[in-house]
Amino acid sequence: MDDTRQVSAPPQCKQSPWEEIGVDIQPTTTQATSTADRPWLLSTYGTETNKTVTLDVSKFTSGTHYTAAANGVPNRLKSGLPLAKVTASGLYAPYASGASDGTEVLAGLLETETAFNTGSTKVGAALRIVGDVARAKLPVALTVPAAANRSDSIHFS
Q1: What is the mean pLDDT of the chain?
Q2: Are 155 and 129 in contact (CB under 8 A)?
Q3: Predicted TM-score (pTM) of this structure
Q4: Mind listing the pLDDT tens digit for each residue in 80-133?
Q5: Across the strands, what pairs with 133?
Q6: Which residues neighbour 142 within 8 Å (Cβ) at sequence distance 6 or greater?
Q7: Cβ(83)–Cβ(140) under 8 Å?
Q8: How many helices (H) does the chain have, and how many strands (E)?
Q9: Which residues contact 125 (CB under 8 A, 6 or more apart)?
Q10: Which of 8, 11, 99, 107 matches a 20 to 30 Å C-alpha distance to 51?
């Protein structure tokens, strides 16, 4: 009995199956870094007292309150926006001195630039309620209301 066996090498592929059908998978990583731009903030005093709030995105105006989405960058609410609480919903919106829906009572300022996607109705944000602020450097004009129409403890210069 002859115990010799023939062993053949596995068939060699000239190309991977992905190359054969024209697929070229190249994983990439993208990282974006931004620095907080708060020229209106005179000191860090009060930073630890920020309050977490939910904003009603539908109440904000493109160009005035936020920069519209472009080139893959989402909409961005400007830091320093004066905010107030809408009585009916409990959500926050831009402060409006002549309103009667709760937004006539200044609650504080939007602490940081806040991104949101087009179509979003709400976004979480940090509300500055204490601190020293340069009113002239806010992103929108603000006439500081009387104490009766404020719930914040911000000192405006």
Answers
A1: 86
A2: no
A3: 0.77
A4: 999 999 999 999 999 999 999 999 999 999 999 999 999 999 999 999 999 999
A5: 41, 156
A6: 82, 95, 135, 156
A7: no
A8: 1, 10
A9: 52, 53, 54, 55, 77, 92, 110, 111, 112, 114
A10: 99
